[in-house]
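This part of the workshop introduces the protein records we will be handling. As an example, a complete record with its sequence and its C-alpha coordinates follows.
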Amino acid sequence: MLSFAACATNTHHVDAQSYAPIGPALARVAIVPFYAHRLYEGSRRLGGVPPELATQRVTQQVTEAILAEGIEIVPVDEFARAFEDVPRATAVIDAQIYAEGAGNHLGATSVLVGEVLRYRDARGATTPGRHPASVVFQVTLYEAPDGFKLWSARYDYTQPPPPEKSGSDLHDAALMQHWLTAHEIAQRGAEAIADLLADAR
Protein backbone atom coordinates (compact mmCIF):
# COMPACT_ATOMS: atom_id res chain seq x y z
CA MET A 1 0.00 0.00 0.00
CA LEU A 2 1.38 3.39 -0.95
CA SER A 3 1.56 5.81 1.91
CA PHE A 4 3.04 8.86 0.18
CA ALA A 5 0.95 11.94 0.97
CA ALA A 6 -0.76 13.48 -2.03
CA CYS A 7 0.79 16.73 -3.16
CA ALA A 8 -0.77 19.20 -5.58
CA THR A 9 0.88 21.76 -7.84
CA ASN A 10 -0.53 24.33 -10.22
CA THR A 11 1.62 25.82 -12.97
CA HIS A 12 1.30 26.75 -16.64
CA HIS A 13 -2.46 26.06 -16.48
CA VAL A 14 -1.73 22.54 -15.27
CA ASP A 15 -3.14 21.13 -12.03
CA ALA A 16 -0.94 18.21 -10.98
CA GLN A 17 -1.38 15.76 -8.13
CA SER A 18 1.32 13.41 -6.82
CA TYR A 19 0.36 10.24 -4.93
CA ALA A 20 3.82 8.66 -4.64
CA PRO A 21 7.40 9.35 -5.75
CA ILE A 22 7.46 8.92 -9.53
CA GLY A 23 11.16 9.16 -10.32
CA PRO A 24 11.87 5.41 -10.67
CA ALA A 25 8.68 4.94 -12.70
CA LEU A 26 10.00 7.25 -15.42
CA ALA A 27 12.76 4.87 -16.48
CA ARG A 28 10.65 3.64 -19.41
CA VAL A 29 7.15 5.01 -19.98
CA ALA A 30 4.47 3.44 -22.16
CA ILE A 31 2.12 6.10 -23.51
CA VAL A 32 -1.36 4.78 -24.19
CA PRO A 33 -3.17 6.37 -27.17
CA PHE A 34 -5.45 8.99 -25.64
CA TYR A 35 -9.16 8.44 -25.11
CA ALA A 36 -11.97 10.88 -25.80
CA HIS A 37 -13.67 11.53 -22.47
CA ARG A 38 -17.35 10.56 -22.32
CA LEU A 39 -18.15 14.28 -21.94
CA TYR A 40 -15.89 15.28 -24.84
CA GLU A 41 -16.70 18.75 -26.20
CA GLY A 42 -15.97 18.72 -29.89
CA SER A 43 -19.06 19.74 -31.78
CA ARG A 44 -18.03 20.92 -35.24
CA ARG A 45 -20.73 23.55 -35.05
CA LEU A 46 -18.87 25.02 -32.08
CA GLY A 47 -15.45 24.87 -33.70
CA GLY A 48 -14.72 21.38 -32.41
CA VAL A 49 -12.65 18.60 -33.92
CA PRO A 50 -13.78 14.96 -34.26
CA PRO A 51 -12.66 13.02 -31.17
CA GLU A 52 -10.54 10.51 -33.08
CA LEU A 53 -8.52 13.35 -34.62
CA ALA A 54 -8.22 15.29 -31.36
CA THR A 55 -6.97 12.25 -29.43
CA GLN A 56 -4.49 11.38 -32.15
CA ARG A 57 -3.07 14.90 -32.14
CA VAL A 58 -2.74 15.15 -28.37
CA THR A 59 -1.20 11.68 -28.10
CA GLN A 60 1.48 12.68 -30.60
CA GLN A 61 2.15 16.03 -28.93
CA VAL A 62 2.49 14.55 -25.45
CA THR A 63 4.71 11.74 -26.74
CA GLU A 64 7.04 14.13 -28.53
CA ALA A 65 7.19 16.49 -25.55
CA ILE A 66 8.13 13.66 -23.17
CA LEU A 67 10.80 12.41 -25.56
CA ALA A 68 12.20 15.93 -25.79
CA GLU A 69 12.73 15.84 -22.01
CA GLY A 70 14.98 12.81 -22.39
CA ILE A 71 12.51 10.34 -20.90
CA GLU A 72 12.63 6.91 -22.54
CA ILE A 73 9.32 5.61 -23.86
CA VAL A 74 8.03 2.37 -25.28
CA PRO A 75 7.85 3.01 -29.05
CA VAL A 76 4.26 3.81 -29.99
CA ASP A 77 4.11 1.20 -32.75
CA GLU A 78 5.48 -1.47 -30.38
CA PHE A 79 2.80 -0.64 -27.83
CA ALA A 80 0.08 -0.68 -30.49
CA ARG A 81 1.11 -4.11 -31.74
CA ALA A 82 1.16 -5.54 -28.24
CA PHE A 83 -2.38 -4.43 -27.49
CA GLU A 84 -4.03 -4.44 -30.91
CA ASP A 85 -6.39 -7.27 -29.92
CA VAL A 86 -7.38 -5.73 -26.58
CA PRO A 87 -10.77 -3.98 -26.79
CA ARG A 88 -10.77 -0.49 -25.32
CA ALA A 89 -13.30 0.33 -22.61
CA THR A 90 -12.47 3.41 -20.52
CA ALA A 91 -9.20 4.99 -19.48
CA VAL A 92 -9.62 4.01 -15.82
CA ILE A 93 -10.60 0.40 -16.51
CA ASP A 94 -7.96 -0.20 -19.17
CA ALA A 95 -5.14 1.36 -17.14
CA GLN A 96 -4.73 -1.79 -15.06
CA ILE A 97 -4.60 -4.00 -18.16
CA TYR A 98 -2.04 -1.79 -19.85
CA ALA A 99 0.10 -1.44 -16.73
CA GLU A 100 0.34 -5.18 -16.24
CA GLY A 101 0.91 -5.99 -19.90
CA ALA A 102 3.37 -3.20 -20.61
CA GLY A 103 5.30 -3.94 -17.44
CA ASN A 104 5.54 -7.68 -17.95
CA HIS A 105 6.03 -7.80 -21.73
CA LEU A 106 7.41 -4.44 -22.90
CA GLY A 107 9.78 -3.56 -20.09
CA ALA A 108 7.78 -0.48 -19.11
CA THR A 109 8.12 0.90 -15.61
CA SER A 110 4.94 2.95 -15.95
CA VAL A 111 2.07 3.73 -18.29
CA LEU A 112 0.64 7.16 -19.04
CA VAL A 113 -3.08 7.15 -19.79
CA GLY A 114 -4.74 10.29 -21.11
CA GLU A 115 -8.18 11.66 -21.96
CA VAL A 116 -9.18 14.64 -24.09
CA LEU A 117 -12.19 16.53 -22.75
CA ARG A 118 -12.19 19.52 -25.11
CA TYR A 119 -10.43 20.37 -28.35
CA ARG A 120 -12.04 23.38 -29.96
CA ASP A 121 -10.71 25.89 -32.43
CA ALA A 122 -11.69 29.55 -32.46
CA ARG A 123 -14.79 30.50 -34.43
CA GLY A 124 -15.22 33.68 -36.45
CA ALA A 125 -12.69 35.09 -38.87
CA THR A 126 -13.08 38.68 -37.70
CA THR A 127 -14.07 38.26 -34.06
CA PRO A 128 -12.59 34.95 -32.82
CA GLY A 129 -12.38 36.38 -29.30
CA ARG A 130 -16.08 35.70 -28.87
CA HIS A 131 -15.47 31.97 -29.37
CA PRO A 132 -11.75 31.41 -28.67
CA ALA A 133 -9.85 28.17 -28.97
CA SER A 134 -10.01 25.94 -25.92
CA VAL A 135 -8.33 22.66 -24.93
CA VAL A 136 -8.71 20.42 -21.90
CA PHE A 137 -6.97 17.10 -21.40
CA GLN A 138 -5.81 15.05 -18.46
CA VAL A 139 -3.20 12.34 -17.90
CA THR A 140 -2.57 9.76 -15.20
CA LEU A 141 0.67 7.87 -14.58
CA TYR A 142 0.41 4.31 -13.28
CA GLU A 143 3.24 2.14 -12.02
CA ALA A 144 3.93 -0.94 -14.12
CA PRO A 145 3.21 -3.77 -13.74
CA ASP A 146 1.34 -3.23 -10.45
CA GLY A 147 -0.99 -0.50 -11.67
CA PHE A 148 -0.65 1.82 -8.67
CA LYS A 149 -1.74 5.39 -9.42
CA LEU A 150 1.32 7.61 -9.04
CA TRP A 151 0.58 11.00 -10.54
CA SER A 152 -2.06 12.89 -12.48
CA ALA A 153 -2.34 16.23 -14.22
CA ARG A 154 -5.06 18.24 -15.93
CA TYR A 155 -4.41 20.93 -18.51
CA ASP A 156 -7.19 23.45 -19.10
CA TYR A 157 -6.75 26.56 -21.19
CA THR A 158 -9.08 28.87 -23.07
CA GLN A 159 -7.52 31.89 -24.71
CA PRO A 160 -8.83 35.04 -23.01
CA PRO A 161 -10.25 37.80 -25.19
CA PRO A 162 -8.45 41.16 -25.49
CA PRO A 163 -9.49 43.96 -23.11
CA GLU A 164 -12.90 45.48 -23.79
CA LYS A 165 -12.54 48.38 -26.19
CA SER A 166 -14.70 50.16 -28.69
CA GLY A 167 -14.46 51.56 -32.20
CA SER A 168 -11.03 51.68 -33.79
CA ASP A 169 -9.40 50.62 -30.52
CA LEU A 170 -11.23 47.29 -30.76
CA HIS A 171 -9.95 46.77 -34.30
CA ASP A 172 -6.37 47.54 -33.24
CA ALA A 173 -6.60 45.15 -30.29
CA ALA A 174 -7.86 42.37 -32.53
CA LEU A 175 -4.95 42.90 -34.91
CA MET A 176 -2.45 42.77 -32.04
CA GLN A 177 -3.94 39.65 -30.51
CA HIS A 178 -2.52 36.36 -31.77
CA TRP A 179 -5.46 34.00 -31.89
CA LEU A 180 -4.20 30.59 -30.95
CA THR A 181 -5.38 27.39 -32.57
CA ALA A 182 -6.37 24.34 -30.56
CA HIS A 183 -3.21 22.66 -31.84
CA GLU A 184 -1.02 25.46 -30.47
CA ILE A 185 -2.77 25.39 -27.11
CA ALA A 186 -2.48 21.61 -26.85
CA GLN A 187 1.23 21.86 -27.68
CA ARG A 188 1.76 24.23 -24.77
CA GLY A 189 -0.10 21.84 -22.50
CA ALA A 190 1.93 18.84 -23.65
CA GLU A 191 5.18 20.69 -23.02
CA ALA A 192 4.05 21.87 -19.58
CA ILE A 193 3.10 18.34 -18.52
CA ALA A 194 6.34 16.87 -19.87
CA ASP A 195 8.28 19.54 -17.99
CA LEU A 196 6.56 18.63 -14.72
CA LEU A 197 7.32 14.95 -15.27
CA ALA A 198 10.97 15.70 -16.00
CA ASP A 199 11.26 17.80 -12.84
CA ALA A 200 9.98 14.87 -10.78
CA ARG A 201 12.81 12.53 -11.78
